Ribulose-1,5-bisphosphate carboxylase/oxygenase large subunit
Amino acid sequence: ETGEIKGHYLNATAGTCEEMMKRAIFARELGVPIVMHDYLTGGFTANTSLAHYCRDNGLLLHIHRAMHAVIDRQKNHGIHFRVLAKALRMSGGDHIHAGTVVGKLEGEREITLGFVDLLRDDFVEKDRSRGIYFTQDWVSLPGVLPVASGGIHV
Protein backbone atom coordinates (compact mmCIF):
# COMPACT_ATOMS: atom_id res chain seq x y z
CA GLU A 1 0.00 0.00 0.00
CA THR A 2 1.24 3.45 -0.88
CA GLY A 3 -1.18 5.43 1.26
CA GLU A 4 -2.11 7.40 -1.85
CA ILE A 5 -5.76 8.08 -2.54
CA LYS A 6 -6.94 6.58 -5.83
CA GLY A 7 -9.91 7.68 -7.86
CA HIS A 8 -12.07 6.67 -10.77
CA TYR A 9 -13.67 8.78 -13.47
CA LEU A 10 -17.08 7.30 -14.27
CA ASN A 11 -17.47 7.46 -18.07
CA ALA A 12 -20.83 9.02 -18.93
CA THR A 13 -20.28 8.87 -22.70
CA ALA A 14 -23.23 7.12 -24.33
CA GLY A 15 -25.04 6.68 -27.63
CA THR A 16 -27.72 9.22 -26.68
CA CYS A 17 -27.81 12.38 -24.59
CA GLU A 18 -30.54 10.84 -22.45
CA GLU A 19 -28.38 7.84 -21.54
CA MET A 20 -25.39 10.13 -20.92
CA MET A 21 -27.42 12.18 -18.45
CA LYS A 22 -28.70 9.01 -16.72
CA ARG A 23 -25.09 7.96 -16.22
CA ALA A 24 -24.13 11.37 -14.82
CA ILE A 25 -27.08 11.29 -12.41
CA PHE A 26 -26.11 7.75 -11.36
CA ALA A 27 -22.53 8.90 -10.75
CA ARG A 28 -23.80 11.72 -8.55
CA GLU A 29 -26.01 9.28 -6.60
CA LEU A 30 -22.97 7.04 -6.04
CA GLY A 31 -20.99 10.01 -4.72
CA VAL A 32 -18.48 9.90 -7.59
CA PRO A 33 -16.77 13.34 -7.66
CA ILE A 34 -15.58 13.21 -11.29
CA VAL A 35 -17.46 12.25 -14.45
CA MET A 36 -15.65 11.60 -17.74
CA HIS A 37 -16.92 12.35 -21.25
CA ASP A 38 -15.46 11.73 -24.70
CA TYR A 39 -16.38 15.11 -26.16
CA LEU A 40 -15.59 14.30 -29.78
CA THR A 41 -17.48 11.01 -29.96
CA GLY A 42 -20.25 12.29 -27.68
CA GLY A 43 -20.64 15.61 -29.47
CA PHE A 44 -20.31 19.26 -28.49
CA THR A 45 -24.00 19.80 -27.66
CA ALA A 46 -24.08 16.73 -25.44
CA ASN A 47 -20.85 17.88 -23.80
CA THR A 48 -22.31 21.32 -23.07
CA SER A 49 -25.40 19.75 -21.49
CA LEU A 50 -23.22 17.49 -19.35
CA ALA A 51 -20.92 20.39 -18.39
CA HIS A 52 -23.92 22.41 -17.17
CA TYR A 53 -25.25 19.44 -15.20
CA CYS A 54 -21.86 18.78 -13.59
CA ARG A 55 -21.33 22.42 -12.69
CA ASP A 56 -24.85 22.70 -11.22
CA ASN A 57 -24.37 19.53 -9.15
CA GLY A 58 -20.82 19.94 -7.84
CA LEU A 59 -19.19 17.35 -10.11
CA LEU A 60 -15.93 17.79 -11.99
CA LEU A 61 -16.03 16.97 -15.70
CA HIS A 62 -12.95 15.25 -17.11
CA ILE A 63 -12.76 15.37 -20.89
CA HIS A 64 -11.27 12.55 -22.92
CA ARG A 65 -10.51 13.11 -26.59
CA ALA A 66 -11.14 9.67 -28.08
CA MET A 67 -10.98 9.77 -31.89
CA HIS A 68 -8.97 13.02 -31.98
CA ALA A 69 -6.12 11.57 -34.06
CA VAL A 70 -8.52 10.75 -36.90
CA ILE A 71 -9.42 14.45 -36.99
CA ASP A 72 -6.30 16.38 -35.97
CA ARG A 73 -3.29 14.35 -37.12
CA GLN A 74 -3.96 14.68 -40.84
CA LYS A 75 -1.52 17.13 -42.43
CA ASN A 76 -3.53 17.66 -45.64
CA HIS A 77 -7.01 17.90 -44.15
CA GLY A 78 -8.72 17.77 -40.80
CA ILE A 79 -9.07 20.10 -37.84
CA HIS A 80 -6.02 21.03 -35.76
CA PHE A 81 -6.27 20.23 -32.06
CA ARG A 82 -5.94 23.93 -31.18
CA VAL A 83 -9.37 24.42 -32.85
CA LEU A 84 -10.80 21.39 -31.04
CA ALA A 85 -9.37 22.78 -27.79
CA LYS A 86 -11.12 26.12 -28.33
CA ALA A 87 -14.39 24.33 -29.11
CA LEU A 88 -14.00 22.37 -25.87
CA ARG A 89 -13.35 25.49 -23.84
CA MET A 90 -16.56 27.01 -25.21
CA SER A 91 -18.46 23.76 -24.62
CA GLY A 92 -17.27 23.20 -21.05
CA GLY A 93 -15.12 20.86 -19.00
CA ASP A 94 -12.81 21.03 -16.01
CA HIS A 95 -9.81 19.11 -17.31
CA ILE A 96 -8.82 17.31 -20.49
CA HIS A 97 -6.51 14.44 -21.28
CA ALA A 98 -4.33 16.66 -23.49
CA GLY A 99 -1.18 14.66 -23.98
CA THR A 100 2.38 15.93 -23.67
CA VAL A 101 5.38 16.57 -25.87
CA VAL A 102 6.59 12.98 -25.26
CA GLY A 103 4.92 9.58 -25.16
CA LYS A 104 1.85 8.15 -26.85
CA LEU A 105 0.06 11.46 -27.31
CA GLU A 106 3.20 13.34 -28.25
CA GLY A 107 3.18 16.47 -30.35
CA GLU A 108 5.53 19.29 -31.32
CA ARG A 109 6.64 21.06 -28.15
CA GLU A 110 5.76 24.65 -29.08
CA ILE A 111 2.46 23.70 -30.73
CA THR A 112 1.44 21.58 -27.73
CA LEU A 113 2.31 24.38 -25.31
CA GLY A 114 0.35 26.77 -27.53
CA PHE A 115 -2.92 24.85 -27.25
CA VAL A 116 -2.24 24.21 -23.56
CA ASP A 117 -2.19 28.00 -23.08
CA LEU A 118 -5.42 28.33 -25.10
CA LEU A 119 -7.07 25.88 -22.74
CA ARG A 120 -6.02 27.39 -19.43
CA ASP A 121 -5.02 31.06 -19.81
CA ASP A 122 -7.48 33.97 -19.84
CA PHE A 123 -5.44 35.91 -22.39
CA VAL A 124 -3.12 34.44 -25.04
CA GLU A 125 -0.90 36.62 -27.24
CA LYS A 126 -0.45 35.89 -30.94
CA ASP A 127 2.65 33.72 -31.43
CA ARG A 128 2.89 31.91 -34.76
CA SER A 129 5.82 29.77 -33.56
CA ARG A 130 3.40 28.20 -31.08
CA GLY A 131 0.51 27.91 -33.52
CA ILE A 132 -1.35 30.92 -32.07
CA TYR A 133 -2.31 32.99 -35.11
CA PHE A 134 -4.22 35.75 -33.33
CA THR A 135 -4.56 37.11 -29.81
CA GLN A 136 -7.28 35.33 -27.85
CA ASP A 137 -9.03 37.06 -24.95
CA TRP A 138 -11.28 34.57 -23.16
CA VAL A 139 -12.50 37.27 -20.74
CA SER A 140 -14.36 35.34 -18.00
CA LEU A 141 -14.89 32.03 -19.80
CA PRO A 142 -13.54 29.32 -17.47
CA GLY A 143 -10.38 27.53 -18.52
CA VAL A 144 -9.79 23.81 -18.85
CA LEU A 145 -6.82 22.22 -17.07
CA PRO A 146 -4.74 20.06 -19.43
CA VAL A 147 -3.64 16.78 -17.82
CA ALA A 148 -1.34 14.00 -19.00
CA SER A 149 -1.72 10.28 -18.33
CA GLY A 150 -1.03 9.28 -14.76
CA GLY A 151 -2.41 12.53 -13.34
CA ILE A 152 0.71 14.59 -14.10
CA HIS A 153 -0.38 18.04 -15.27
CA VAL A 154 1.29 19.74 -18.26
Summary: The first helix runs from residue 17 to 30. DSSP finds six helices and seven strands in the chain.
